[in-house]
Design goal:
Chain lengths: 243, 474
């Protein structure tokens, strides 16, 4: 056994919200919190996919660290003291959501994912009653060139779940992120219409892991696009078992 | 000295508008115009959106009659899919529309217009509104609220919610009806019918006291346009277009709405955001026509339900051939409520109504589709074009209030000529000019696809355009 694995395997004890909890050394704060029934909001994170810490909704406070840390990618250490809920955190989480809502068009009322959207649910849970910054009103296009699916960039929050599921689970790596900052977009293959992609297998995993109405099936009407994600933990487990 | 009177804002209608009345050198009314001063641009903002979002997206045009837009839009999408909606899906859509017409007519008649009938056209505005009505005529006010509630509950029971339901979709409806909801609606129909019947009886006894208004409220020859079924019966949801002239002659019948551009032209006037549609064969502006309750009762051969037919026969006796005064839109609304309730009961007793096959699925099979429904205020047309991927490239909406635009303008002029005297705007005169507009129950939010409250401004203008008097209500 190498020293690293030995260290990882060692049980660590820490406090979350004042509660004593134990964890194995390679676990993240988010994993430990969820195992212990402590809720931390997440958007880009999806169990079964590699965490990327993109959305910043899972930020937590750690005693002795001035900055806020993303729970999904921060590993636990001995005697760590974590706080998952405070006025400061609630303020930051609401602000993150407000920025997401203003950057693109998330008018829920006329969205196919209305009532089945993680962004919408998070806004409700976090008590986001209004938006304090101006909307950008970007006019982004809808790519409906695929025979079964469409991507509406207006509804995309760049969580990259589609990129990760396509790469890690399906193995096709059709999706990727193009450009930077405000200009960033998810793209298929070499930034070409989805319908012309040579790598896309049409499996639809990206559609079902997408938290919003950005990736949807064609032909669905408003509020009809409910996503099914049960397949993901099962597929991940099967991949791991086959090693 | 010539002057212009402006009524701005026009109250108790849906939307934003202004009326200007132009006086000549003798101080007599020379011209009058109804300006719709709001703009929204729904036809533009839907470009690039997937067609399957259109019913709900377009329904956001209006919170009073979202159902009408849902229906017309879904039907336009049916045409894009080129599918036949299952029979039960069609029947359920019809019930939804009937519920919508009942609630909207109840709103128009009781909440918006009855203060004029019951409290007097000359009463000051603060004493001529729904709240005053609750104090002076509590039974009628209660009836109005109950009837509107009934219509709204029909919508909720079918579609899940009262305002902006998403239940009506391309190809049919998303969920079938359950027996419990059907029975609940059926159980409430007798009460709604009792309200509708006693209101009609009361109105039939009282409306004649408004002889002057009847004679001058947009009482002029025009064409009438609307949908009838294949036998010429009153039709609200499906059917084809019939056009009747002021002598009662059918000048066009069973026109397919897909060809609407062959018989409807849309003129644009610089003074209003609301377009002026006209009947193409007669040209602009001679092709003036009216749509809505009055038009529907004028073009149909019968209502095809017993109680409504009885009332309809009496209604048609009002004039020699067709009923010309727009004041009778109110009367027509009451008859239509009865027709809707009777039709609703008939459909809900259909043995297939609980069938679960309510939606046809397909990919788009046509690049262009037109849908039509009879909204409470008249014929509503949605016309879409899509690209190969099903994204909207172009849309055109013709809303009932748009169809009536030329007629509203002519009505305002007629009423102004009769009631406006001198250089000051008096309340009774103002209200009568405004009440002409209200006969049509216009929905300006829909018709310009526009946003806003409905304040009214009236301007009285001299021959050289100088403003002599201005009245504004917010």
């Amino acid at each position: 056994m190498t020293p690293t694995t030995a260290q990882q395997a060692r049980v660590k004890t820490l406090k979350i919200n004042g509660r004593d909890v134990s964890a194995s050394g390679d676990q993240t704060i988010l994993e430990v919190a969820r195992e212990n029934g402590i809720e931390i909001p997440t958007l880009c994170h999806l169990s079964g996919l590699t965490p990327v810490g993109a959305c910043r909704l899972c930020l937590v406070e750690v005693k002795g660290v001035n900055k806020l840390l993303p729970a999904c990618v921060t590993r636990v250490h001995e005697n760590m003291e974590v706080f998952t809920d405070s006025e400061r955190l609630r303020k930051y989480r609401r602000m993150v959501l407000e920025f997401l809502f203003t950057e693109r068009n998330h008018i829920c009322a006329v969205c196919v994912s209305n009532g089945h959207c993680e962004l919408q649910s998070l806004a409700q849970q976090q008590g986001m009653t209004h938006v304090r910054v101006p909307y950008l009103y970007q006019k982004l296009h809808v790519d409906a060139s695929h025979p079964r699916f469409k991507v509406d960039h207006n509804r995309c929050v760049l969580c990259t779940r589609c990129v990760r599921v396509c790469d890690e689970i399906e193995g096709a790596h059709t999706w990727d992120v193009f450009h930077r900052g405000i200009k960033a977009r998810v793209i298929t293959d070499l930034n070409q219409p989805w319908g012309t992609s040579e790598t896309c297998t049409g499996c639809g995993k990206c559609v079902h892991v997408c938290p919003t109405g950005a990736l949807t099936e064609k032909g669905v009407s408003v509020a009809e696009m409910a996503k099914r994600r049960q397949f993901l933990p099962y597929l991940t487990m099967m991949r791991e078992e086959r090693g | 000295m010539a002057r212009t009177i402006t009524i701005d804002p026009v109250t108790r209608i849906e939307g934003h508008a202004k009326i200007t009345i132009q006086l000549n050198d003798e101080g007599m009314v020379e011209d009058a115009r109804f300006h719709v001063t709001q703009y929204r641009g729904f036809e533009k903002l839907c470009e690039g959106r997937p067609f399957s979002e259109m019913p709900s997206l377009m329904a956001r045009t209006c919170g009073i009659c979202p159902v009408s837009h849902l229906l017309a839009s879904s039907k336009a999408c049916d045409a894009l899919l080129a599918v036949r909606v299952p029979r039960t899906g069609q029947l359920l859509r019809r019930v939804l529309n009937l519920g919508q017409i009942v609630q909207s007519h109840a709103l128009s008649f009781f909440h918006l217009s009855s203060p004029d009938f019951l409290l007097g056209m000359d009463a000051p505005p603060e004493k001529r509104n729904l709240f005053a009505l609750v104090e002076t005529h509590p039974t009628i006010a209660r009836d109005g609220i109950a009837l509107r509630k009934f219509g709204q509950q029909v919508i909720e029971r079918l579609a899940g919610k009262r305002i902006h339901p998403a239940w009506c979709v391309p190809g049919g409806v998303s969920d079938p009806l359950d027996a419990e909801s059907r029975d609940a609606i059926l159980a409430e129909i007798p009460h709604a019918m009792a309200i509708a019947t006693r209101t009609l009886e009361w109105y039939q006894k009282t409306f004649r006291q408004f002889a002057e208004e009847i004679a001058t409220f947009a009482n002029f020859p025009s064409l009438f346009m609307g949908l009838v079924d294949e036998d010429g019966n009153l039709e609200f949801t499906d059917g084809k277009v019939r056009v009747v002239d002021s002598a009662g002659n059918i000048i066009a019948d069973q026109l397919d709405i897909a060809d609407y551009q062959d018989f409807i032209g849309e003129a644009v006037e610089p003074y209003s955001y609301l377009k002026s549609p006209y009947y193409k064969p007669l040209g602009y502006p001679d092709g003036i026509y009216r749509v809505g309750p009055l038009a529907r009762l004028n073009i149909a051969d019968r209502c095809n339900t017993p109680r409504a037919d009885e009332a309809w026969a009496e209604f048609r006796e009002l004039d020699r051939r067709v009923v010309l005064s727009s004041f009778h839109y109110h009367y027509a609304r009451l008859i239509e409520i009865i027709a809707c309730l009777e039709q609703m009961e008939k459909i809900l007793r259909d043995p297939d109504i609980l069938d679960t096959h309510v939606r046809a699925h397909a990919e788009p099979n046509a690049f262009e589709g037109v849908g039509v429904s009879e909204a409470p205020r008249g014929m509503l047309i949605h016309h879409y074009r899509i690209d190969r991927n099903g994204l909207i490239t172009w849309a055109n909406l013709i809303i009932a209030t748009g169809h009536n635009n030329l007629a509203m303008n002519r009505g305002v002029l007629q009423a102004a000529k009769h009631f406006v005297r001198g250089e000051k705007i008096e309340e009774g005169m103002l209200n009568r000019v405004e009440a002409v507009i209200r006969c049509y129950d216009p929905c300006l939010s829909c018709s310009t696809h526009a946003i806003g409250q409905m304040p009214l401004e009236v301007e009285l203008m001299g021959p050289r355009g100088e403003i002599l008097d201005r009245v504004r209500r917010d």
